[in-house]
Design a protein that fits this description.
399 residues; alpha/beta; Urease, subunit C, domain 1; TIM Barrel; 2 domains; eight-stranded mixed β-sheet; eight-stranded parallel β-sheet; 16 strands; Metallo-hydrolase_Enzymes; hydrolase activity, acting on carbon-nitrogen (but not peptide) bonds, in cyclic amidines; Metal_Hydrolase
Length: 399
């Protein structure tokens, strides 16, 4: 991706409401969008051909360090438990020659090719690999810095307290460039939710980092952990700085208990992430939005030892969110797209996002009649602009 021009003029494109507009991009930012927009001096002119204009997509939760994308097929014979998957993956990564730098770069490029311009990835930190995977993803972040706005979560995939030394490694990861502190199932994995959350919030306070916690814990166990988490958010003044990923318990609790938790989540400005898995309970999307909770979407793992599924295409993830939540009306499918665009940018804290003057110029053109049509049909990306540069055309990266 060697195109260094960060000023572009897009003509003859359509907004979601059907209005035909032009877009002036100067120095990597949107200067203006409208009907009578003047082209910047000496900027190349791109005729959009009446294509639908979308903001660059946001991947809110993935694991690019562990993907098997582009490699030979991985034969999955892992056991059914979460701990089976964790142990199997850790051993496979040690013995297979898997390269976190190579794989994270390949997957990042595939994301950009399909229109993703902002991405939050969780990177395994454990006492076997130490910071090796982080080093690989930091290299990818540097390589992609002009194209892909990436946040790295230091994530204790194998547990934290149950593997002595992990707390210190997480601190090292935050000091060396991780943007967010991750956590995992304080009750079912670490076995002590109070001590685990205390350690997590102490690290976040020390390094002044936000938190993104994987909470797979079901039903009442998950609710208990979530209450402890919310207590700490309130006590430490971390409103607006915490994401709860998955939150399966919120899809399985009795309505009264669930709603009380959701009201508190809204009050503390905790965001929720879902990959909309078909086989697990999920937080109620529309109810969360009605309560003012930011709820957004992500792929989770893509083609790794956990699962053979997933592709780096956020329009497909939006479609899967729509299917999981039975979103059929066009206005409901706009909600699914919001989960991989504005809501995801808000939930992750990505700045300068959107189709507005002053925002970073991250744009996608597709041949679709409406946003709902784009989500369902997932057409080839006609043009992808990232940080003001044309980086993909007709579904292929621009070299």
């Amino acid at each position: 991706m060697t195109n260094m021009n960060r000023s572009v003029y897009l003509s003859n494109v359509r907004l979601a409401d059907g209005q035909r507009v032009s877009v002036s991009i100067v120095d990597g930012h949107i200067e203006s969008i409208g009907v009578q927009v003047v082209a910047p001096h000496d900027a190349p002119i791109e005729d959009g051909g009446g294509a639908l204009l979308l903001p660059g997509f946001v991947e809110g939760h993935t694991h690019i360090d562990k993907s098997n994308w582009g490699r030979p097929w991985y034969r999955n014979e892992v056991g059914p438990l979460l701990t089976d998957r964790i142990s199997n993956e850790r051993e496979w990564r040690k013995t297979s020659g898997h390269d976190a730098a190579e794989q994270s770069l390949a997957l990042s490029r595939a994301f950009v090719q399909a229109g993703t311009t902002r991405l939050r990835t969780h990177v395994d930190i454990d006492t076997d690999a130490r910071l090796r995977y982080l080093d690989g993803v930091l290299a990818t972040k540097e390589t992609m810095r002009d194209t892909l706005d990436m946040q790295i979560v230091a994530f204790p995939q194998s547990g934290m307290l149950i593997r002595p030394g992990t707390v210190e490694l997480l601190g090292d990861a935050l000091a060396q460039g991780a943007d967010v502190l991750g956590a995992l199932d304080p009750a079912l994995i670490d076995g002590d939710p109070v001590a685990s959350l205390n350690a997590t919030f102490a690290l976040a306070e020390r390094y002044r980092k936000p938190i993104d916690i994987h909470l797979h814990e079901p039903g009442e166990i998950g609710a208990f952990t979530l209450k402890l988490l919310l207590d700490r958010v309130e006590a430490m003044g971390m409103q607006g700085q915490v994401v709860v990923s998955h939150g399966f318990c919120l899809g399985a609790l009795p309505e009264r208990e669930r709603d009380a938790l959701l009201d508190r989540i809204a009050h503390l400005r905790v965001a929720l992430l879902t990959s909309a898995p078909p086989s697990r309970p999920v937080p109620p999307l529309k109810l969360c939005r009605d309560k003012g909770i930011t709820m957004f979407g992500g792929n989770d793992g893509i083609r790794d030892t956990w699962s053979p599924y997933g592709v780096p295409d956020m329009l497909e993830r939006a479609m899967l969110i729509g299917m999981r939540y039975d979103l059929r009306r066009d206005d409901d499918l706009m909600i699914a797209f919001d989960c991989v665009s504005d809501a995801a940018a808000r939930g992750c804290g990505f700045a300068d996002y959107g189709l507005r003057a002053g925002a970073r110029a991250d744009l996608v053109l597709v041949d679709a009649e409406t946003v709902a049509h784009a989500v369902v049909a997932r057409p080839k990306r006609k043009l992808v602009v990232a940080n003001g540069r044309i980086v993909a055309r007709d579904g292929a990266l621009v070299s």
